[in-house]
Amino acid sequence: MSQITPRVPKGMRDFPPSVMLKREYVFDVIREVFHLYGFEPIQTPVMELNETLMGKYGEDAENLIYSAKHGRSSKDEISLRYDLTVPLSRFVAMYENDLNFPFKRYHIAPVFRGERPQRGRYREFYQCDADIVGIGSMAADAEVVSLAVTALRRLGFKQFEVKINHRKLLTAIGKYSGVPDEQLPDLYRSVDKFDKIGAAGVQKELEERGIAADVVTRMMELITSQKPGLENLDFLESVFGDMPEAGNSINELRDLAKNLMVAGVPQEFYAIDFTMVRGLGYYTGPIFETIITEPNLGSIMGGGRYDELIGLFRRESLPTTGISLGIERIIDLMDELDLYPAHIGGTVVDVFVTVFDEDTREDSLRVASTLREAGINTELYMEDKKLGKQFNLADKKGIPIVAVLGPDEITRGVVTLRRLKDGKELSVEQALMAKTVRELLS
RNA sequence: GUGGGUGUAGCUCAAUGGCAGAGCAUCUGAUUGUGGUUCAGAGGGUUGUGGGUUCGAGCCCCAUCAUCCACCCCA
């Protein structure tokens, strides 16, 4: 039989133990913060029916959806999920009678997009979503923004800013300036690149798309009115606050900001920014995003309000808002900035129990069992090699403590515990073993 | 989907068109109750793959695959 070159599909990855330990640390921190804010987990299938997924993301995005088919089937009716938000909407519509509202759920799971891979961009990647279903007020939006800030801070990030904008406000700015309705998507797309191409770039691009120069200029003046704190909102209100759509969204942003302030979210971590836009079509209210530019990894957190999406699965929609943490980019960033606590990433093993020779193997096994009984992560040596090799192995794996149990120790009823880091060595009775290990570890 | 860069030992990378190499890692020994340091030695390659040019190709040309970067889009 001919041998097959082992490889994984493009944009998909294997993770060895050293990487998984770091990933799980990140997941654990995020999960903890989700619990802290009272969110509870759900799980849904990796695949959904095409009818569930199609028509929710826009045409470009749909070309990136992986379809799935099994061998006997000629039908092509199910696909891998593209995000966790649409599955949530289906879930809520299906089980609304069994859920308590507001329904606060989190979901940590892989999603699939057939894009060309790049740094921080994969075809299979995890999303960590937290959403609140059933609340239309800014209390919910403030809650998810506050949660995102807390999560990023607990992971060790010191400098970041959650940018906040409002989909309807942006629309109002466009309309007020004279952008035709059918060109609003072009407007969003170009403004979204503001960080990358600057004001002049946006201006140029919009004019190339056929929007009149004076319209673009008027629009740019409004979105780039960067004043401290909430003064941006005051400015916009003075200009066109009497348009109902504009007035409402300005008030919503004020309300959101007030909630954040009362909640004690430090102001350095969020800002209102009219140049931030998000691509997905289903947003209807406040939108959030955190972009990291150094290194240039793009968005590590995004979200917003999507009050109409559940309505695609149910007679009446339910107001919903949420955020998604881009865990893969967060992990890449944490690697780069070295934000992991010292104990993460080496091994889960606390003690390596050596075996002196065949005659003492059973004694070593008993020692290992005693340690495990006491809740200490223990690796028992299973081959027949010199003690020096065993030490070498323990050290290479980063195991902090080695237990030595030779004929000498056995006759004295003790175990020698050696901490590899500094060579500190103690011989203790087996009854005191677990306690001593804990002391050596601390 | 568009444009570009790079593919040589497990890893990082050398090699004017002329004998395929170094460092690190691995394994063995110096060391039969104690790892990291040191010393000595060993293994490891169809130069991503397939064609072409040439007396001769790791090097030049074409194709293909992989990977990275910039777009599009996005986490």
Key phrases:
16 helices, five-stranded mixed β-sheet, eight-stranded mixed β-sheet, single chain, 16 strands, RNA-binding
Structure description:
It is a single chain. The protein starts with 16 loop residues before the first helix and ends with a helix. Helix content is 41%, strand content 18%. The strands form three sheets. Strands 1-5-6-11-10-9-7-8 form an eight-stranded mixed beta sheet. Strands 13-12-14-15-16 form a five-stranded mixed beta sheet. With 442 residues, it is α+β, with helices and mostly antiparallel strands. It has helices spanning 17-36, 50-53, 59-62, 85-95, 138-154, 167-177, 184-192, 194-208, 213-223, 231-240, 244-263, 327-337, 361-373, 387-397, 407-412, 433-441; strands at residues 40-41, 47-49, 67-68, 78-80, 103-112, 124-133, 162-166, 270-272, 286-292, 298-305, 320-326, 351-353, 378-380, 401-404, 414-419, 425-429. It has 16 helices and 16 strands. The mean pLDDT is 88. It binds one RNA strand of 75 nucleotides through β6, β10, β11, α12 and α14.
What is the count of helical runs?
16
What's the main sheet like? Answer: 8 strands, mixed
| Average pLDDT metric | 88
Sheet-strand content, in percent, reads: 15-25%
Distance between the termini: 53 Å
Structural class: alpha+beta
Widest sheet: strand ordering: 1-5-6-11-10-9-7-8
- What is the number of E strands? 16
Low-confidence stretches: none
Radius of gyration: 28 Å
Helix content: 40-55%
Shape descriptor reads elongated
